[in-house]
Amino acid sequence: MNRTNPFDEIEQFFGRTPFRGDRAWGRDLRTTDVDVAEYDDEFVVMADLPGYDREDIDVRATDGRLTISAEHATEHEDSDRRYLRRERRHESVTRSVDLPASVIESDATATFQNGVLTVMLPKETETDPDDGHRIDVE
Q: Of the four, 26, 46, 128, 130, which is 20 to 30 A from 73 by CA?
């Protein structure tokens, strides 16, 4: 007899995974933890992205909102390996943060080191409308 935990079934029914990610249309949508710090002249957002490479990360600042997305696929299929359970396939995370004040999106910078993304967003001192800006990760 194959026994399952009834609470796991309830979580799956209501769209939650054991890893506390949301499930939509059969695909996990996970989020990442962030810290937002405010300094005199900038905001600094730090996000945990362990297991990702710099090339996997997309960071955008638009209309007072910072959006961080990361996506990667795991290693290719190994025909000699017999999996009893396989959960590590394709993984993506996304997180949006509303910034508490206007920033100069075109002057924003980002670094990625040891699985931590750090985004520096200089505060805007004068009104200067911008259409958004993609931030390169160094």
A: 46
